Amino acid sequence: MKKQIAVILGDGIGPEVTQQSIKILDAIAKQYNHEFTYEYCLMGADAIDKTGSPLPDETLTTCLASDAILFGAIGHPKYDNDPTAKVRPEQGLLKLRKSLQLFANIRPVNTYTSLQHLSPLKAKNLEGVDFIIYRELTGGIYFGKKETSADGQSATDDCTYSIPEIERIAHLAFQHAQKRRKKLTLVDKANVLETSRLWRKVVQDLSSQYADVAVDYMFVDNAAMQIIVNPKQFDVVLTENMFGDIISDEASVISGSLGLLPSASVGSSVALFEPIHGSYPQAAGKDIANPIGSILSAAMLLDHFGLTVEADLVRSGVEWTLQHGFVSKDIDPINCYSTSAIGDLIRDFTENKL
Amino acid sequence: MKKQIAVILGDGIGPEVTQQSIKILDAIAKQYNHEFTYEYCLMGADAIDKTGSPLPDETLTTCLASDAILFGAIGHPKYDNDPTAKVRPEQGLLKLRKSLQLFANIRPVNTYTSLQHLSPLKAKNLEGVDFIIYRELTGGIYFGKKETSADGQSATDDCTYSIPEIERIAHLAFQHAQKRRKKLTLVDKANVLETSRLWRKVVQDLSSQYADVAVDYMFVDNAAMQIIVNPKQFDVVLTENMFGDIISDEASVISGSLGLLPSASVGSSVALFEPIHGSYPQAAGKDIANPIGSILSAAMLLDHFGLTVEADLVRSGVEWTLQHGFVSKDIDPINCYSTSAIGDLIRDFTENKL
Ligand SMILES: [Mg+2]
Ligand SMILES: [Mg+2]
């Protein structure tokens, strides 16, 4: 298989974690006779420093011409601490998401036996946790009309959803459920919200096309409890933008470390793969960051190409390092391994050299 | 002190748990020379059966003429399972809240050492957890304009807040913080929502009137994580209606049993006190329900009357029963005590008879 991957190293620890993923993708390509070519693009603070823009036109063009985007992280304190800054690194990512119409954010949530001590939840609540959240990313109240009244006495935010907006992400979630444990949970507030009732209607209507998938409906306040009390009940969770923001962040702490978690953002054309963590500038260049979030994002990229055997091999490599205690400083501050050492081990695992 | 309390026993386990609270309030009144009179009112399925209405006019009149309302629970499956039912028990509560303008829902969250094994969180995350959530209850997206487009292709919910709506609950939260650890956390999404920016502005403006209270701002997605990872950081949490619905339900599972949790709803006139649990009809009349949620609500009612010594005595009684294993079936299905036995023990504790 021949694929072009746009690589955005970005800021802070972005470059060093992404380089581990590329090392592993290269090893996979060699072993399975694929040809991955990488087009490096600028974005974020790095792009502002070099071009003045957080998302240069060239980057957008290259991304649109690629089969997937592997993304590190962006953001730098010199922009955060300057309220007068006209351009900000984060604008690059928002513009990229919008330009690529990345309407679905996908976050797997699972746990590792060797890391149970890091989770705020009891071990018995962690067993068998393996679900994936589909969050709508371009609609709802975050993108609705915003107004402050002329007298400044009140403010309004609109939440709007249309049937096509719901259908396109619902299809993706149903299709993913078919490949998993065949259960879809729609999280909404249909007892109160009109938009939630539309979500429920659309999902109900589509469910006849996916007769093998059991559909479940859960109010968002209850979901916020169930994610803690009984997370293993979930398989594929589908929800609108703001509910997804809240419950996917809540769910992210279950595994015990944000450094482990990958994500994908999928749209009408090219998809983007990135760890959920930020640019963590304090750790930049020190070879101490956790590369697992990026490496598991690369595994999702392989899945997206249909290369599930290869993706599973990468995930097995990650599990092997975690089980054997080859972990970064965020997981174990005493017995820790460097970013690049962990990347090397996972690469060696995929090459069967361990 | 002379006070009239409107009592709504309601449906399911409502009557039997509320009766424990009254038993204890009576003991407190006797010991501290107060005079509490109770006006029993109909509401919910019970009221529909007897009068045809879920909230008879008489109930509303009595409530408005009382100093506080002690509320059990409402709801019955015969209405839930009948989609054609024109009147529903829940309508009574919604109408009562609206008529009394109960704009602030107050929920304490704390933990008991003897119940740590019931919590989904690890014991180390439970130590020192003691916070209280102020949720705005009559505004925001739940009460905003709702629309489906003429062609049925899209739906909209409006979220609106005005400065006075925010100010009245913010004052209550600030005042409560002054009596506690003097920290207020506003939970919002001010990086995205116009209404959140208004909340932030109002709280910022009011903070100068409460110079002894440290104010903290937290995005709701982060709050959903922090409630699990580090709940002891919170003292008073203030938030809008929907965010409050989600995070207060999330926080409610920390203690290990929903049966333990009280709440108060405060408005322009008379306040209402109720356990957060429902009517649990399967357990009705069996003397097995957990009365602690109701009893701690009665303690909040005493606080509301300014009777803090009395309220603390009731809470000490609750702690004593939990510590000594005098718990209901939901807490320990093997060694359990009846609803009325637990009520008796707490009453005896307040009378210093144990
Ligand atoms: Mg978030
Ligand atoms: Mg709720």
Please tell me about this protein's structure.
- The structure is a homodimer of 354-residue chains.
- Chain A has 354 residues and is α/β, with parallel strands linked by helices.
- The first copy, chain A, has 2 domains: 1-100 and 270-354, Isopropylmalate Dehydrogenase; 112-144 and 157-257, 3-Layer(aba) Sandwich (Isopropylmalate Dehydrogenase).
- Chain A contains 13 helices and 12 strands.
- In chain A, the strands form 2 sheets. Chain A has a 10-stranded mixed beta sheet, sandwiched between helices. In chain A, strands 6-7 form a two-stranded antiparallel ribbon.
- The model of chain A has no long low-confidence stretch (mean pLDDT 95).
- At the A-B interface, β6, β7, α8, α9 and α10 of A face β6, β7, α8, α9 and α10 of B.
- β7 (154-162) of chain A pairs antiparallel with β7 (154-162) of chain B.
- The complex binds magnesium ion (2 copies).
The termini of chain A sit apart by: 26 Å
Q: Looking at this structure, what is the CATH superfamily of the largest domain in chain A?
A: Isopropylmalate Dehydrogenase
- Backbone shape of chain A: globular
Which strand order spans the largest sheet of chain A, edge to edge or round the barrel? 2-1-3-12-11-4-5-10-8-9
Helix content of chain A: 40-55%
Q: What value does the Rg of chain A take, in angstroms?
A: 20 Å
How many separate helices of chain A? 13
Count of domain modules of chain A = 2
Q: Do you know the CATH topology of the largest domain in chain A?
A: Isopropylmalate Dehydrogenase
